[in-house]
Automatic annotation (TrEMBL), chain A:
Signal recorded as keyword: no
Protein's recorded name: Urea ABC transporter permease subunit UrtC
GO CC term, one of those recorded: plasma membrane
Gene: urtC
Alphabetical UniProt keywords: Cell membrane, Membrane, Transmembrane, Transmembrane helix
One Pfam short name: BPD_transp_2
CDD domains on file: TM_PBP1_LivM_like
Gene Ontology MF annotations: branched-chain amino acid transmembrane transporter activity
From TrEMBL, chain B:
Membrane protein topology class: Multi-pass membrane protein
Keywords annotated in UniProt: Amino-acid transport, Cell membrane, Membrane, Transmembrane, Transmembrane helix, Transport
Gene Ontology BP terms: amino acid transport
GO CC, alphabetical: plasma membrane
Chief location category: membrane
Transmembrane helix is among the record's keywords: yes
Protein localization: Cell membrane
Name this polypeptide is given: Urea ABC transporter permease subunit UrtB
Gene responsible for this protein: urtB
Length: 379, 289
């Protein structure tokens, strides 16, 4: 019987932990009913995609203690994988059945490069969008964590690696579209459904991926490996003394985080209808860190909401003339204040408030109980 | 042969600019453990200060160097005092906070003076070129080289031969012991950060005649300067000098053979590999802990 009780309370705790995740996902799914505007819906979908990217950073930074300043690298790789597949679909329309993507024609490329060839298959592209970032991250992680590189140096290495890839993409204009990126893409078609960037289908695809990434990330943080990763974050050497292969767990969380970022990148291409070198730029990479810190790096839902809120506000305010100029200033100030006074972000603030309310209620009910027992005593 | 010498001289001049920018960063990181992502913005503030002094006060670049140092140092002091000193023992958070400060400074400048490019004139005394080994070299670049070495010397003296430097080194060794000897760590940290910021400001003022001045000009410098600091070893000033000139020559040399992108890529990758195998930097001896 006692084990049964602890099981049911364990289940209750699980439900309590899942509740914010499910509520947020339900809201995300319900939004199109409230919002009857395709243009706006596309914009929201964009913010949701950035939310997925931020969840991925929360996983490696908040839970793994690995501050990846090059998170946009994985995002960009995913985005290019999708863009390459969608670009090849436009070839017959633009340059004939045996032609090349238009920007290659402008750059006098004679044959489709070997690394473009497999992207004729959409399923290959989707697999690549997940696996290429994951493998690159695993390789980089192997290189860093086997050498016990930690802290600030991890951040510098990830940042430098991303800048290198960005430089290469911009430089190799004839194969990557260079500075302009890959534009003028076909629509994504999966299982007979066409995903128009401004259509409902695309929005629900993004919403489904939000739920999926939240669930995957949540499951990981509750798994044995996830717990060890958090233990490494807090006391790396102690975990090592217990005989765990610390680097292996770090590499895993780093790669998982990259795969989720790759997924976000692919979705971003579908929603934005292009891929650009800015998708793996320093600016975006640092913005993700901001969103994650504002929302709460140690909370998946917090990180997600942080991205949607801040990116959404940024989008809204930068369109209104009054805030066009001051917005960045406001964001910088907000960010500094969050770092200084809310190290756990808005999610930490919400948790603290919730605990305070619960304590107050408990204290109040305690006082009532005491009052009852007192009156009983007096009679 | 002439081309080779020209290339070496170009490398030296890239190196002296790198050294100017990296020197302040190196002190701040080496002594306080703060990754100062706002460093590029201090460079930018220095450049704008040079422009303001010239346009509104009619002060020449050379005459305004000292005031520029003081103005930017004051900015640094305020930021250390009211932001960074609240982040003791949270080194990763200092990255975030200084980045936030950086974008605020950038945007504030954009709001106040606009985002159009500004130009600062070369000091007339240094606007001609000199003959070095039969090759004409701009006097200003020679001047930059001399100034960067002189600033390095001054910084070395400050760290090793003055009471403030002594106190700073004591704090680096053991903060609590230093405090128990009556050293005011807060004050020394604020002064250190202010000095580093002031150096960055000087760097900005000194490069302003070579490049156009814009609110986002600092971003490029900060990454390069980091590479210098990491390559040189965190607590080694001499390492900073060596690595600044090595990187200067390297990017000059590779850019000469290939193109800028290849140069940057090779330098960045070399640094990634270096951090992995020698996180203490090329020029620091391994010390017993």
């Amino acid at each position: 019987m006692p084990s049964n009780i602890s099981n049911s309370s364990g289940l209750q705790r699980l439900i309590a932990q899942l509740a914010p995740l499910l509520i947020v996902s339900a809201l995300v799914f319900a939004l199109p009913v409230l919002l009857n505007n395709d243009f706006l819906l596309n914009k929201v979908a964009r913010y949701l995609v950035l939310g997925i990217l931020t969840i991925s950073l929360g996983l490696s930074w908040g839970f793994g203690g690995i501050l990846n300043l090059g998170q946009a690298m994985s995002f960009g790789l995913g985005s290019y994988a999708m863009a390459m597949a969608l670009k090849l679909k436009t070839v017959p329309v633009h340059t004939g059945a045996s032609g090349l993507p238009d920007f290659m024609v402008w750059n006098n490329v004679q044959h489709l490069p070997w690394f473009w060839e497999p992207f004729r298959s959409l399923s290959f592209a989707i697999a690549a969008g997940l696996l290429v970032p994951a493998l690159v991250a695993a390789g980089l992680g192997w290189f860093m964590f086997r050498g016990r590189v930690t802290g600030v140096y991890v951040s510098i290495i990830t940042l430098a690696t991303m800048v290198v890839i960005n430089l290469v993409i911009i430089d190799q204009q004839s194969y990557t579209g260079g500075f302009n990126g890959i534009t003028d893409l076909a629509q994504l078609e999966l299982f007979g459904v066409a995903f128009d960037a401004y259509g409902r289908a695309t929005y629900y695809l993004v919403a489904g991926c939000v739920l999926l990434s939240l669930l995957v990330a949540f499951a990981f943080t509750k798994s044995r490996a996830g717990l060890i990763v958090q233990a490494i974050r807090d006391h790396e050497s102690r975990v090592r003394y217990f005989g765990y292969d610390v680097a292996l767990y770090q590499i895993f969380v780093f790669a998982l985080s990259a795969a989720i970022a790759g997924l976000a990148g692919m979705l971003y291409t579908v929603v934005m209808e292009f891929a650009s070198p800015t998708f793996l730029g320093v600016q975006l990479s640092l913005s993700v860190v901001v969103w994650c810190a504002v929302g709460g790096r140690q909370s998946l839902v917090g990180a997600f909401l942080g991205a949607v809120l801040v990116a959404g506000m940024q989008g809204a305010l930068s369109e209104s003339a009054a805030f066009l100029e001051t917005w960045t200033l406001v964001m910088g100030a907000l960010f500094v204040l969050v770092v200084l006074f809310l190290p756990k972000g808005l999610a930490g603030l919400a948790q603290a408030t919730w605990r305070w309310v619960a304590q107050r209620r408990q204290a109040a009910s305690g006082a009532v109980a005491r009052g009852v027992s007192q009156t009983e005593g007096s009679t | 042969m002439d081309q080779l010498i020209e290339q070496i001289v170009t490398g030296l001049s890239i190196g002296s600019i790198l050294l100017l920018v990296a020197l302040g960063l190196s002190i701040i990181y080496g002594s306080m453990g703060i990754i100062n992502l706002a460093h590029g913005e201090f460079v930018m503030l220095g450049a704008y200060a040079a422009w303001v002094f010239h346009t509104y006060l009619g002060l020449g670049l050379l005459a305004s160097l000292v005031p520029i140092f003081l103005v930017v140092a004051a900015f640094g002091w305020v930021i250390e005092r009211y932001v960074l000193s609240l982040l003791n023992n949270r080194p990763l958070d200092t990255i975030l906070a200084t980045w936030g400060v950086g974008i605020m400074l950038q945007q504030a400048v954009r709001l106040m003076v606009g985002s159009e490019l500004r130009y600062v004139q070369l000091p007339p005394a240094l606007s001609d070129s000199m003959d070095v080994f039969g090759i004409p070299i701009s006097s200003y670049r020679v001047f930059l080289f001399v100034v960067s070495i002189a600033l390095f010397g001054a910084t070395w003296l400050l760290m090793n031969r003055t009471p403030v430097g002594m106190k700073l080194r004591a704090i680096i060794q053991d903060r609590s012991v230093a405090a128990s000897f009556g050293i005011n760590a807060k004050r020394v940290y604020a002064l250190t950060f202010a000095y580093g910021a002031g150096l960055a400001g000087l760097a900005g003022a000194l490069v302003s005649p070579l490049k156009s001045v814009s609110p986002d000009m600092g971003t490029g410098y900060v990454v390069d300067a980091f590479m210098v600091v990491v390559l040189g070893g965190v607590q080694s000033l001499a390492g900073t000098v060596a690595s600044a000139f090595i990187l200067g020559e390297l990017s000059g040399g590779i850019a000469f053979l290939q193109n800028d992108t290849v140069a940057k890529t090779i330098v960045l990758l070399a640094i990634v590999v270096l951090i992995r195998f020698r996180p203490e930097g090329l020029f620091t001896a391994r010390v017993r802990a």
